[in-house]
Amino acid sequence: MWVVWRAGNIPYDEACCVFKLNCSLSERRDSLCSKLFRQLVSQSHILHGLLPAQHDDGLTGLLRPRNKYPTVRARTNRFKNSFIPYAIANCQ
Asked: pTM of the prediction?
């Protein structure tokens, strides 16, 4: 069922209720990003080679907790917000 709004702009929360969305778009994007990143970490995934090399868990792994993958340094916001750097920064 499609609802046509003729009254103008409505708040985002009300629109989510009208269309029976249980989470916001940002929450959905984050959950899908986490799901895809978990799949990507597995060795059998075809895109696994796009990830940077994992940290060595030698002595530094004993000293402090670390992320599995190093953060990707990005010079532009466009690259920083692309999937791989975003997922490494937010989904580990």
From this structure: 0.67
